[in-house]
Amino acid sequence: MTDVFPPDDDSELVIVRKLVKPLAKAQPTPPEPGGTPAQPSVPAAASLDALAVDGNGSEEPAGDDRPGDEAAGDEAGSHAVVGKTVVPAAAPPPKFVKVISISHEEDLAGPLPVPIGEEDAPVDNNPRSDAGVGVDPRLRERRREVDRLITRKRLFVGLGIFTVLLIVVGTLAVFASPAFDVRTITVYGNVFTTDDQIAPVLAELRGKPILTVDINKARAQLEALPFVRQADIATDFPHTVHIEIEERQPALSYVGTDGQWRIIDNDGRVLTLLGGQPAEFKPINGVGPAIDAGQYAGAGYGAAATIARSLPSELQPYMASFDVKQSGDIDLVLSTGTVISFGQPTDMTAKLAAVLTKFRTTPPSNVAAIDVTNPAAIGVTLK
């Protein structure tokens, strides 16, 4: 049973929980010998409506029928009140009390009562919900507007990304179509490299979409050819590919252990194989390695070819052949029979300058040998 008294503006709320057991049947008290029969005892919760709290926090019977002090004491003894809240004297006493009675059969583990005026307040499980009590409507509207702006922004960003991807995919699809394939290929700079050697590379380029054609692969294939030092490839939209080749320059020749002659450049790379000795390229004396075109004969062969290509023009007419020793030393044999010993192929500029200076004072025909292993102290043997 609940008694509710509406509070005034300056009143406080006091909650009193009472545990009321089921009323037991009143039993008469046995009379004392020689006395009058006793009255039945009054149950503890016989009348809760008769209770009130006065200004001093004490319990008094309600209504106008207020007995004297003695009667009040007897009356108080016939009531059982459990869990009374008393306001300290220092604080203003509450004017009204809400009394809640819980019967013995009710679930005592249930929720405690809430203050008057808050029982029906909605529970807000969403911290952004605008159903809370006392929220300014303008704030609720502002929250809704922010949510709408965020949603629109995400939508616009998603549409923008989708549009960009669509444009990129569409552009690639158009330019990768056969409408923009390779139809014309121009080749420049090939002198020793034959058309038959280049043809397989051009066949792979022709007919491919010009934007997706693999020019790196084509460049590697061309530079693998023996005479090609470097290949530059450029596309010219919509249908043309330009190829410019820089070739290696042959310098010397030598015969291999298989009897075939090989032409090498100044890196010692074998450029081609011939069945006989070429007249235009001076030989390296002795027998060299039998390797295929595109492979390297060795550092000594490359150094001899480098000397042959850098020999001063005054000595070019006298050049006859080279000797490449196992130690790496290099000798140049002139047509006059003069032998020039260079030693290791290092500091070649100073060594060639020393030879040229000596031959300007002494003709090669008068010199049997000249040693420029140390260019600062050359040795000369005259005929």
Descriptive terms for the model:
383 residues, alpha/beta, Ubiquitin-like (UB roll), 3 domains, 4-stranded mixed sheet, 6 helices, 17 strands, elongated
Written description of the protein model:
The structure is a single chain. The chain is an alpha/beta fold. It folds into 3 domains: 1-23 and 40-117, no CATH class; 179-247, Roll (Ubiquitin-like (UB roll)); 250-382, Rossmann fold, CATH 3.40.50. It is 25% helix and 23% strand. It has a 5-stranded mixed β-sheet, covered by helices on one side. Strands 11-10-9-12 form a 4-stranded mixed β-sheet, with helices on one face. Strand 13 and strand 14 (330-334) form a beta hairpin. Helix 3 runs antiparallel to helix 4. The longest helix has 39 residues, at 137-175. The chain is elongated and about 120 Å long. The termini are far apart.
And the CATH topology of the largest domain?
Rossmann fold
The CATH architecture of the largest domain is 3-Layer(aba) Sandwich
Percent in helix: 10-25%
Number of strands: 17
Number of helical segments with 4 or more residues: 6
Q: Could you say which overall geometry the principal axes of the C-alpha atoms support?
A: elongated
Element order, helices and strands?
Answer: EEEEHEHEHHEEEEEEHEEEHEE
Give a short account of the largest sheet.
Answer: 5 strands, mixed
The order of strands across the largest sheet is 13-14-15-16-17
Given as residue ranges, the uncertain stretches (5+ residues, pLDDT < 50) are 1-26, 32-90, 95-121
Q: What share of residues are in beta strands?
A: 15-25%
Average pLDDT across residues? 76
- What gyration radius follows from the Cα positions, in whole Å? 59 Å
- Class by helix and strand content? alpha/beta
